[in-house]
Specification:
Double-stranded beta-helix; alpha+beta; single chain; 266 residues; six-stranded antiparallel beta sheet
């Protein structure tokens, strides 16, 4: 196998529904992470703030770094990332966790063609050298109705990258020409060979009464796709529906009270 250009790191994922990933670093190895992902670390690891993602893909000099950082702003992320470098001897470990219940998956970019496209807020951490950029959706319909907008994240390089998503993560391998229709919010990531498009739900009754939205995503092989069973947006919408706003119902003092819950099946 070709020698990696990115830092080589070892890892171990702990937990089931509330996972964290432990990264083991040799001396002078570095892992980069999104702000807020850090959990704890061993002595000997030094933290530093990077402008952009710390990769060399944005070009040299300040202008290249500025362009790389600006791309991160377009995906809703911070201008800065945090680098954790092992400056001591032996091995040291640093651990990262996702912001909500779900799974963490490891993407070996060297084995995945050097590029993976993922939803904007899924990236957790990666070996130093992995580029964290943006992927524009070329089709107008995909950008307007795809659930992720015109911009998604792309991870490029030959190192290990880790993404986090809600619920259970299902991996599917699509053969050339094989298609998979997916709820737009359930897409976590896919390899560069997968074609991503949006289709409208057929049938007036499906559109009006289906409750699944007017559009779904179509993923066409060849390549790998990763899907999540519980998008955080779906979870947040369900929680809000039990509030006092639109669609909610106050239980205390309500005339319906427990009868309303009975009708709901609660």
């Amino acid at each position: 196998m070709k020698m990696r250009q990115n830092h080589e790191i070892d890892y171990k994922i702990y937990g089931e529904e509330m996972q964290c990933v432990e990264i083991e670093l040799d001396p002078q190895e570095t892992v980069i992470a999104e702000s807020g992902a850090f959990m704890f670390m061993d002595p000997g690891i030094e933290m530093s703030t990077l402008f952009g993602d710390g990769s060399s893909q944005g070009g040299g000099g300040f202008l290249g770094k500025l362009m790389g950082a600006g791309k991160r702003l377009l995906t809703g992320e911070s201008l800065f990332m945090t680098a954790f470098t092992h400056t001591g001897s032996g091995k040291s470990r640093v651990t990262f966790a996702g912001p909500y219940a779900g799974k963490i998956i490891c993407l070996d970019l060297q084995k995945l063609g050097g590029k993976v496209v993922c939803q904007k807020d899924s990236f957790l951490c990666a070996a130093k050298g992995v580029g964290v950029g943006i992927e524009f959706q070329r089709r107008l319909g995909t950008g307007l109705f795809g659930g992720e907008g015109f911009i998604m994240q792309k991870l490029e390089g030959d190192g290990l990258a880790f993404v986090h998503a809600g619920g259970y993560i299902l991996e599917r391998v699509l053969q050339p020409g094989e298609k998979l229709r997916v709820d737009t919010g359930c897409i976590v990531a896919f390899t560069s060979g997968v074609d991503y498009d949006i289709q409208m739900v057929r049938g007036v009754k499906n559109m009006i009464f289906g409750g699944e939205g007017l559009f779904f995503a179509t993923l066409s092989g060849p390549g790998k796709v990763w899907l999540q069973s519980l998008p955080v947006s779906r979870l947040a919408a369900r929680i809000l529906s039990y509030g006092t706003g639109a669609g909610g119902r106050k239980e205390e003092g309500s005339i319906l009270g427990g009868f309303g819950n009975l009708l709901d099946g609660d």
